[in-house]
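anyone seen this seq b4? input:
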Amino acid sequence: MKKTLFLAVLVAFGMTSCKDNAAEKVSADNVAAAAERDTQADKYPVMSFTETTYDFGTINQGEAQEHVFTFTNTGEADLVIVDAKSSCGCTVPQYPKTPIAPGETGEMLVKFNGSGKNQVSKTVTVTANTQKGKEMISIKAFVTPKDGAVEGSPIKVQ
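predicted toks r here
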């Protein structure tokens, strides 16, 4: 009997506590803001580089190199670069920390310490709020070893 009475009180409480109409709580301002946000959701920034690969040519081993990759936001929303990572610790990218507005230009400095031998190729992966989410740029060089020998060649260059 006590269980039945308890159950009846619990059901009555549950039914009376739900009499608020959720539709009445929706604000017209919130609906308008959500509609605006949804129309903006289809607008992305586009990171358009003037070049995506740079060749340093022939360099000496250990000789530091730098190159600036220039890009323009050709999209319809602010471009925000979250991160830029290289495929190797010998390559260090530096990217803008502030948003790039549509039509604006930005620069990414890539430093390479000249390590390796012969033909080397390094990539930088840029994480941004573009539709793809990741963009790629790369550098390459032919690195002449310090001792002057080209790998696979028995002749030493003087």
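The radius of gyration is 29 Å. Residues 122 and 139 are 5 Å apart (CA to CA). kinda curious what u guys think
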